[in-house]
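Write out this protein's structure.
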Amino acid sequence: MPAPTLRRPARFTALLVIAALATVACGSDATTPSSTDGLGAIGAGLRGRAGLHASVYATGLRNVAAVALDPQGRVWVATAAFTDSGTDAVHLVPRAGAAPVRVLSGLHTPLGLLWTDGALVVSSKERVDAYRGLAGTRFAQRSTILTLPSGVGESNGITRSPGGRFVLGISAPCNACTPASKLSGAVVSFRADGSDLRVEASQIRAPIGLAYLPGTNDLYVSMNQRDDLGAQTPGDWLALVRPGQSWGFPACYGQGGTVCANAPRPVAVLDKHAAVSGVVITAGGAVTGSAPSALVAEWTLGKVQQVALRTSGSTPAGQVRPFIAGLQRPVAVTAGPARSLLVGDWQTGTLYLVSGL
């Protein structure tokens, strides 16, 4: 593992040398993925659940890291390369099949993308910026909402809470250290103007994708686990994150025992060393089923997992099932129009539209 700075694509590449792919339940009641996926051809070279249909929405977007839709329904894509050289970008794809248009350039690892209140909000290395006044392919104004300390760790997905606060995942800048900043290895929130920065949940190895269950305050977060433990590393997690939680990193990594006695349990345990990435929540449908589900990208294994969300008493748990396979390195997932899913493949630069959810 590269250290102390952890860039997401670099970490993903390092994971390819790790052979252990079985999952463990880490002492929780979460469900691990099946060894057989039961998926069939759904188009565009992908396999998926019966009833899905896949097509290529756009190409030429190498290193797709985040996707968002603007108020007009157009697709915006952030790209983040293997090495941060200040050449990352944000592109506009005005319609299916259209050539991507570079709108923002010179960025540093933009991994979070969100359209809100007429602005494009981008989380990137140690900052969050808002771009306003789009005219053609240019923004008239850029304002910095938040500046983070140097070396704090990777800024990941960003979303907006039902109460209007921005919520951001920040990785720890290491595999097993105790970070110097309380903002490292945490889910943080702040007001729309960047004020009142607070830690919502702490001691998380790497909170990556964030999504609220519609109509609720339930925040689901994909979490990458430590990668220095070999076969002892548990599967990556999907977790329901509550304010005030401490997840015990680095001492607790789901192994149980007294060191994990006060740590929350994940909703679902996914594959080991999967480098889980983007998360989108569906309300249920013909393919996903009647209950809400989280769709989670697994970068290392080239697939999207479905986690059917359910509650047993007050304890949430999720049943994991394969949903889409045949991708190279998926990172970004977001809800598309008319019960569809947009999936960005970091490796091939392809953006897929999967309909029929």
